[in-house]
Design brief:
mainly alpha, elongated, 3 helical TM bundles of succinate and fumarate reductases
Length: about 100
């Protein structure tokens, strides 16, 4: 539900950007309201929970084999976490740059 709402919110954002500076500024003011800030915090926590539970479930949902040897589940989970950390650092670097 939160991802669906974020997708809809993103469509409204695109519409505000394409409508001009006054619409964009009005949209940003709405996003700064207490309700939207609370929503962003709750959505962030729920999405983090979802990511952690999925990464912990991934070894069971995705069996990786090298030859006839099965890759241990811990390696699959840790590779997911490593990718998450790498992409997060890359995004932070791009935003700060």
């Amino acid at each position: 539900m939160f991802v669906a709402f974020y997708s809809i919110l993103f469509l409204f954002f695109i519409n505000a950007v394409s409508s001009g500076p006054t619409e964009y500024d009005a949209f940003l003011e709405k996003l700064e309201s207490g309700g939207f800030i609370a929503f962003h915090i709750i959505a962030f926590l729920i999405l983090i929970f979802h990511s952690v539970t999925w990464f912990n479930l991934a070894p069971k949902a995705m069996v990786v084999k090298i030859g006839k040897q099965r890759v241990p589940g811990v390696v699959v989970a840790l590779s997911n976490y490593a990718g998450w950390v790498f992409i997060s650092i890359l995004i932070i670097w791009l935003v700060i740059k």
